[in-house]
Amino acid sequence: MTEQQTATVHNTHNNLSPEVSQFLAESPKTQLELIPQLVSSGDSGWEVLMTFLQLSQTKTPNIVIGKAYQALYQVNVPKTLDFLTHHFPNGVIPLKSERNIDYQGLNELLLKQEFQAADTLTRQKLCELAGEAAVQRKWAYFTEVEQFPSTDLHTINSLWWVYSEGKFGFSVQRKIWLSVGQDYNKLWPKIGWKQDNNWTQYPNQFTWDLSAPVGHLPLLNQLRGVRVAASLFSHPVWSEHNW
Fold it and tell me: Per its UniProt record, what PANTHER family does this chain match (predicted)?
C-alpha cells in the first residue's frame, strides 16, 4: 500500500458518514445481506461500499470484501469502474505464484461467478503447477499435488472462497471432509458429487451457481480414486493459513 493510499484511508476513517459507520458495525452475515440493498439504492449506496473497500485495503480479503468488490464491478458505471481501476487495479486478492503462473483469467471468471469455466481453468492451472507432463495428460498425480507450492494453492483457494461468499474452495471441502471423520464415502454425497450411490455426471448434473451444496466446487477427478483429494486435503497450506 502506498503512502498516498495510507493517507487516504486514514482521512476516510476520520470522516465516516453515519451510513458507513452503521455498515461497519454490522456482523459479516448482515453486511453480506446489506450489500445488494446498498447497490440498488444507487449513488449513496455505492459510496458506502467504496468507502468500505478503501478502509479494507490493509486487510486480508474476506467474503464481505469480495462481495462488495463484485457488487461495484457489476454496477458497471464510470464512477464505480474508475474507483476500482484506481484503487484496485489488480483486484482485491493478491494473485501470487511461486511458479510464475498467471491467475488473472481465473480471477476474472470467479469475479463474474462463471463457475463452470472457472472450474475448467482451475484444473488447467493445477496441471500447470504439476508440470509439463501433467499438462499433456490433463490431470495431476497425487505425488505432484504434494509438491504444489503453498502460495499457489492459497491463491487458487482464496479466489474460489472469496468470490463464492465462502461456499466453494478446497478449504471448504476439507472442512467438510474433517467433519465427516475423513470418510470420502460420506464426503461425496454431502458436497453433491454422488447421488443415490451414483457419481454425479459431468457437466450437466453439477450445479454451476451458488445454489449448489456447500463445497460443490471446484471439482476433482474422483473417478481416479481419493489419493489426489487426500494429498490436497493434507497439504501444509491449510495449517499455514486460517481458513
Answer: TETRAPYRROLE-BINDING PROTEIN, CHLOROPLASTIC
